[in-house]
Amino acid sequence: xxxxxxxxxxxxxxxxxxxxxxISEKLDIPIGDCRTAPFADGELNLTNRDNSHxxxxxxxxxxxxxxxxxxxxxxxxxxxxxxxxxxAGAYKIIAVIPYFGYxxxxxxxxxxxxxxxxxxxxxxxxxxxxxxxLMDLHSQQIQGFFHKSQVYGxxxxxxxxxxxLTKFENNPKEDFVVVAPDEGSFKNAYKLSQKLGTSIxxxxxxxxxxxxxxxxxxxxxxxxxxxxxxxxxxxTAGTICNAAENLKARGAKEIYVAAxxxxxxxxxIERLEAAPINEIALLETIAISPEKRIKKxxxxxxxxxxxxxxLKIHYGFDLDAPIxxxxxxxxxxxxxxx
Length: 338
Prior knowledge:
This protein is α/β, with parallel strands linked by helices. It has helices spanning about 15-25, 70-85, 115-125, 155-165, 185-195, 240-250, 270-275, 305-315, and strands at about 1-5, 10, 35-40, 45-50, 55-60, 90-95, 130-135, 150-155, 175-180, 200-210, 210-220, 225-235, 255-260, 280-285, 295-300, 335. It has a seven-stranded mixed β-sheet with strand order 11-10-9-12-13-14-15, sandwiched between helices. The chain has a five-stranded parallel β-sheet with strand order 2-5-6-7-8, with helices on both faces.
């Protein structure tokens, strides 16, 4: 019989370094010296200077695009860092993925299609990750694509709920309506409306091709209401802006937008600037560059909840259990091993 005391190593890819640094500060644990740099031909080379042997290794990486990097770069970096930790003899390796790229490719339209989110899950498992921590997956079925890794899901809806409850605490709930911009977002919008105690409306969407959509039907009373359009992802912003125009035409008093992941590709910023939207609340799961941070945009902090879940996973706590005190003296209770 032996006694072991497992410690944390915290690493961060370049997919969302600002969030990783905030999580590091919340935990009072420095980010380890593990980094990648490109060769001349674009291949990534990884250097790991930290000792991870026998430790719980948490690797923070959003697999979105980031400054000068594609989603593929950031996914590959995550895989390399996981494999490096495995080779170094880490006890457990946990991927902390605030935004899981390729999540919208979760099914086939044609039988020849690749279910790319399933492929990503398989690659993450093969890179040595024992556990995966994700926030607001586009489709919950993606959790089923992981067969060896334990998957933990964090919801950002409580952060959004608390923000808007505080913002409009003096307004009667009858003034509000949560709006689902398409059928796919209806379930999440309904859950948010239940949390806020408001009614719900719906805007139907026709999508003839990728990144192009238009509102074709709408339901629910929005006249003279404060409307909150809720979705999980804003990419090119066509869906959100079409819904906002529709609500304005139907007499909405004010229009707010809330989403977990601000992908903000292509014409998104131009569209959001021009749309009749009072404010756009986004979580910091994707690093948003300064030139995209328009005046009507509000970034809601998520570092605290990620830090809490990292501690819960490290200590083996139930995810609904009380949160352990944040401390730099972080180690599992002594575990007896036969």
